[in-house]
């Protein structure tokens, strides 16, 4: 298994970026004078008061203003040249290098232990070898997905229209699929005509496009605590300020929700409807109604991520159904119940937003996966898909009971008994640290999802999310038993 | 045909956003006092001196500072409430609405006539009906693409491994395809081991990810004049400052290139290698070498977009081959020669950048189209693909001669005789405006690409790009003849 090696490489490269002088040049406690000058210049560059290409203060003037010797400034400038932050042009002076550091997502926001970093579970799950166990991942094993229907649809496509195989799709995405999604949404009480639906390449890309469309750098975004870890990763990429509200079995804690809106005035709230990730909770109608009233009062826009819709036995309320796509944007994808290999998601929103989003989609991805959309449309149109869902839901229910029982025997307790879906959000026995157990598990090729990966407030160190469909192998419980015994 | 209608809707909605008061409340020339107050507040909101949620000055204090009556300010605030820019809280005052305007790409940068807006050709080409002519689009008709090979590969996939059909791909993308791309790049003299190659969902998405990775808001980016119009659209989405340098038949004008680097210190240069879009020009080895020397001198990073590689009869020099992926990033896709429906592109860059880009890719798209990558890999591995390219290149050469001849008869002159590819960059007879002709053509369901769509300096109003593979229908020449006669 390659994970350890990959991580080590990353850590090394991160360390290599740190300039040696911060410890190397010190004689006692605190920074040396040279280091002080370097820090001053670095801060001016980081804060953009010195922009790339700008000329630095002359050695003499900086020495005078910082009350250090000329040789200290010369030394500091030389070291900054050596590390590539500035360049020297003989006879002219020193200039800020153009080579500003590229975006390092893992360095935005509070620095986290890699084991509870939002990227951690994603990377480990995606990099896992075929025989690794992935109870921490967020998707079903291939054998749980409608394999035969996909194979049939590929054969249908292979005999189909050449345009479908080779050409770009229309800007909004394949019309028949948008019509079908519109009808499916109507079943959840959401009115969205096909021209208010734009296809994307995934649910993640849908949220990303919306963040680009709605957020300015530094805007505040509200998420649930806990919530799907990639929301945090995505918001880091947008350099948004993150605030969070505890999630209860019926939705967000309403008092704290109201208080947070009043205090932080977030621009956006990103949440799951239907089945909440990671808790498996469902929004109650009363909570949904109050959330929308508060959203209206504080001019909040809501992105409702509904990717688990097809797992539900009984449909939970949708914010978009109450709101009519006014301040709620509804997104979804087919990665969880159909295929994660054929990328296809969608955004349903008000017409003028769809117009602006289409320009943004063309500018940033151009055509948008027509072949995947054709495949998804074909599978969804097949009568077999509903049967597949029936079988899948029953299988998940059985797996939930089985895994829940085995975990409880070990003293690992589900927070709630979820109505549907693949996740069990569990409390570990007191005093156990989920991050530590996840690290130990990784050494045995088992990818777990420790609670704090999902938590902006980092208050779920004693929790863990289990994907029941990926938790049926006894190796998992052997490992957990061992880890619990060790404490 | 629906284009006209779509455009009209857009124009209407843009107008609807303009507050009526700017004309409605005037008694003479210039703005009314109410309008003046509204403009003042709007500018403070736009300039972020009044941020969302902030309290507005009291009516009395604003009236005093602007030297207008209290009733004028009351009137202005009421109108701003009506248009949603501010909200009123009885007993408390007026506040900036949280609902800041979402990103409108078409409103970033200088306002262009829609006919020469970079989005125009994209939207019209993607929205065109099957029987419309698209000499202005940037891709081949489906019948020119390896239809049989794609059908074969779909059948192969339909019999293949379930994981390929249903599961997410690894973070960097499908290994066998990355190895194959690595070998293909080696044929162009570019050394890129598979772990320095990351798959993306398209060439456009590759550039988008790189811009997100490398640019800060307000950074300057250098492009060719003319260049692929979507570079401009994409850079608008990143709110980058755009500078451009004229493109000559051998690459960028070197004197102006050097001058622009010295003056504007761009962070990035985005260009096509191989065959240049829209001119069909190829970089000479001497120019490539000088461009790289200047890039080094001015710490410039270069994105080399190589999506036309497979059209070449003889390989032109690649910047990445000389540079060894140090300051050059090499990107490509298979949309032009294999399929635009199966989205798949790639980025080749230095290892630490690939590491950061992978985090960014996961955060913003998660898995990344495995099914498309499997299909592309299967088609590329098929011996038939090289034969397809041989046939395609010969077909394009013949079409180029034919279309060039017909255009010249009309007095429309190719700027150069391109060595390969699908584009003819043509000068119209003196005094003709390409934008006007494109507008007239659209009324006849013909999508053209007027020169200024490609030009940051807007200096190609007398030029037009023809895609020879989409220019073989006599209706095009009839229409052009008519347009030319009309002058």
From TrEMBL, chains A, B:
InterPro entries: Aminotransferase_I/II_large (IPR004839), HTH_trans_reg/aminotransferase (IPR051446), PyrdxlP-dep_Trfase (IPR015424), PyrdxlP-dep_Trfase_major (IPR015421), PyrdxlP-dep_Trfase_small (IPR015422), Tscrpt_reg_HTH_GntR (IPR000524), WH-like_DNA-bd_sf (IPR036388), WH_DNA-bd_sf (IPR036390). Residues 31-99 form the HTH gntR-type domain. This is DNA-binding transcriptional MocR family regulator. The lineage of its organism: Bacteria, Pseudomonadati, Pseudomonadota, Alphaproteobacteria, Hyphomicrobiales. Residues 1-33 are annotated as: Disordered. In the C-terminal section; belongs to the class-I pyridoxal-phosphate-dependent aminotransferase family. It comes from Neorhizobium alkalisoli. Keywords: DNA-binding, Pyridoxal phosphate, Transcription, Transcription regulation. CDD domains: AAT_like (cd00609), WHTH_GntR (cd07377). Coiled coil: none annotated. GO terms for molecular function: DNA binding; DNA-binding transcription factor activity; pyridoxal phosphate binding. SMART domains: HTH_GNTR. Gene3D superfamilies: Aspartate Aminotransferase, domain 1 (3.90.1150.10), Type I PLP-dependent aspartate aminotransferase-like (Major domain) (3.40.640.10), Winged helix-like DNA-binding domain superfamily/Winged helix DNA-binding domain (1.10.10.10).
């Amino acid at each position: 298994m390659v994970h350890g090696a990959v991580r080590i490489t990353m850590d090394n490269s991160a360390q290599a970026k740190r300039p040696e002088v911060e410890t190397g040049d010190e004689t006692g406690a605190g920074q040396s004078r040279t280091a002080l000058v370097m820090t001053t210049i670095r801060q001016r560059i980081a804060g953009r008061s010195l922009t790339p290409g700008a000329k630095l203060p002359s050695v003499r003037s900086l020495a005078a203003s910082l009350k250090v010797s000329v040789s200290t400034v010369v030394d500091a400038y030389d070291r900054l040249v050596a590390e590539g932050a500035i360049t020297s042009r003989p006879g002219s002076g020193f200039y800020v290098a153009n080579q500003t550091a590229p975006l390092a997502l893992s360095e935005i926001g509070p620095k986290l232990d890699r084991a509870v970093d939002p990227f951690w579970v994603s990377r480990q799950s995606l990099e896992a070898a075929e025989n690794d166990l992935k109870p921490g991942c967020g998707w079903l094993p291939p054998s749980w997905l409608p394999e035969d229907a996909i194979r049939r649809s590929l054969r249908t496509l292979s005999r189909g229209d050449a345009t479908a195989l080779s050409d770009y799709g229309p800007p909004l995405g394949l019309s028949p699929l948008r019509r079908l999604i519109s009808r499916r949404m109507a079943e959840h009480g959401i009115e969205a005509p096909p021209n208010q639906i734009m296809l994307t390449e995934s649910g993640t890309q849908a949220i990303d496009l919306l963040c680009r469309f709605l957020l300015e750098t530094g805007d505040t975004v509200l998420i649930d605590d806990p919530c799907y870890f990639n929301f945090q990763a995505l918001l880091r990429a947008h350099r948004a300020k993150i605030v969070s509200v505890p999630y209860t079995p019926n939705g967000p804690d309403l008092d704290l929700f109201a208080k947070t809106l009043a205090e932080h005035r977030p621009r956006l709230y990103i949440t799951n409807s239907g089945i909440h990730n990671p808790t498996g909770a469902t929004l109650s109608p009363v909570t949904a109604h109050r959330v929308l009233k508060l959203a209206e009062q504080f001019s909040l826009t809501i992105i409702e991520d509904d990717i688990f819709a097809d797992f539900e036995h009984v449909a939970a309320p949708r914010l978009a159904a109450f709101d009519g796509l006014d301040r709620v944007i509804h997104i979804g994808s087919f990665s969880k119940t159909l295929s994660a290999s054929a990328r296809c998601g969608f955004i349903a929103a008000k017409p003028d937003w769809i117009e602006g989003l289409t320009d943004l989609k063309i500018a940033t991805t151009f055509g948008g996966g027509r072949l995947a959309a054709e495949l998804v449309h074909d599978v969804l149109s097949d009568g077999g898909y509903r049967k597949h869902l029936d079988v899948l839901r029953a299988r998940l229910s059985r797996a939930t009971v089985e895994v829940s029982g085995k975990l409880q025997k070990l003293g690992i307790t589900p927070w709630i008994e979820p109505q549907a879906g693949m996740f069990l959000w569990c409390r570990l026995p007191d005093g156990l640290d989920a991050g530590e157990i996840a690290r130990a598990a990784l050494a045995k090729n088992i990818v777990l999802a420790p609670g704090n990966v999902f938590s902006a407030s980092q208050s779920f160190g004693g929790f863990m999310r289990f994907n029941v469909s990926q938790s049926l192998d006894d190796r998992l419980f052997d490992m957990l038993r061992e880890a619990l015994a060790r404490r």
